[in-house]
Amino acid sequence: MAIDVKEFDPAAPTHDGPEHMKRVVIVGSGPAGLTAAIYAARANLDTTVIAGLTYGGQLMLTSDVENFPGFAEGIQGPELMAAMRAQAERVGAKVIDQDVERVDFSKRPFTLNTDSDTYTADAVIIATGAAAKWLDIPSETRLRGRGVSTCATCDGFFYRGQDVAVIGGGDSALEEALYLSHIVNKVKLIHRRDAFRGSKIMQQRALSNPKIEVLFNTGIEEILGEDDVTGLRVRDIISGQTRDLAVSGVFVAIGHEPNTGVFRDKIDLDEKGYVRLIGESHTNVHGVFVAGDVFDTRYRQAITAAGSGCKAAMDAEKFLESEIAAAEHHPIEMVTPRNW
Ligand code: NAP
Fold first, then answer.
1. Burial grade of 94 (CB within 10 A; 0-12, 13-18, 19 or more)
2. Can 155 be counted among the known catalytic residues?
3. What is the mean pLDDT of each run of 10 residues along the chain (340 residues)?
4. What is the CATH number of domain 5-131+256-329?
């Protein structure tokens, strides 16, 4: 598909921020956004993070994080995010607890509006993440982080040798079930229809795995347990009969929604609403970069999000540097993604 790449006049006026400092605005404050902020601020860019009314992203809903390098004993998700925020602020980034409500990427400087303020930017990094979809039943909300999870890579380890359930029928559910089959005693893979939506190869792997028991045509009535998950009440969609399954973990894998509503019609999104990535961190609008789960449907890890935040900030810096050089009629090699 041909991508409409928007170019701008490099000599156009820049933002109204501190003299000689290019302004980068980062939207989102999960590992991608805050890592981008640390790199941008340390590159001497005037860096503002519009963090959202609740900062920190999905890790704020996670308890123990044992797979983020550097924490031998693990760390609580909110604690990790507070440390990333403090680090970004210490190196000079401003973190604003507001939601972006409108953006204008059609001219430079870019503008971003919250309900009370307008921010201008020479470069923007979109790091608004994605949210896991939930079943939306009260017991799920109550037991989130206490046996209910949306990330087997993050939490599977806590259920070594136990029985768990995975809910969903797409590639995510199949992948989660296969991953968990190496760790737990038994995985009950529960899908509401009689056929999976995921790829054939993943289906074959799941169906032939002796540790995975597939329950088709099965709906979720209730997640059982007071303080921690002890089971799952399921309903046979054909017979209408309910029964209880004993499991100590429930992995909800029914899809994700990218947080891109505010960017619709402003940059290229794919058919599912994820930002369409060009090269390593570029979007189709020159000067607007992307990092983390808002484009990445594959890895969705805090560490990969942080890595992509670093790339986006470094690419934004190079982009601004090349602009300054162009404006001074002193061209240096433009940094251009290979597949543009
Ligand atoms: P998905 O393909 O949209 O599948 C979501 C699954 O959850 C569907 O089976 C759906 O059932 C079920 N579901 C949705 N809402 C539900 C509800 N309220 N209650 C019970 N079940 C519900 O999402 P995904 O699996 O996260 O995959 C998203 C995209 O990422 C896909 O394009 C996928 O191929 C890709 N992906 C790829 C890989 C890989 O290649 N390794 C891994 C993960 C994801 P129905 O089938 O009845 O609609």
1. middle
2. yes
3. 56 50 93 98 97 89 81 92 98 97 96 96 97 94 94 91 97 93 97 96 96 98 97 98 98 95 97 97 97 94 96 97 77 43
4. 3.50.50.60
CATH topology of domain 134-252: FAD/NAD(P)-binding domain (3.50.50)
Longest dimension (CA), the chain: 75
CA distance 149 to 143: 9
Spot the catalytic one: 46, 151, 310, 315: 151
Q: Is 169 in the pocket of ligand 1 (CB under 6 A)?
A: yes
CA distances from 177 to 181, 194, 302 (A): 6, 17, 20
**Which are the contacts of 126, defined by CB distance < 8 A and separation ≥ 6?**
27, 28, 260, 263, 267, 275, 283, 288, 289, 290, 291, 294
Tokens of 156: 């599977």
* Contact in structure between 166 and 176 (CB atoms under 8 Å): yes
Ligand 1 centre distance from Cα of residue 197 (Å)? 7
Domain ranges of the chain: 5-131+256-329, 134-252
Q: Catalytic: 315?
A: no
Distance from residue 74's CA to the centre of ligand 1 (Å): 29
pTM over 0.85: no
What separation in angstroms does the CA of 100 have from each of 94, 96, 207? 15, 10, 44
Is the backbone peptide bond immediately before 18 cis, with ω within 30 degrees of 0? no
* 5-131+256-329 shares its CATH topology with 134-252: yes
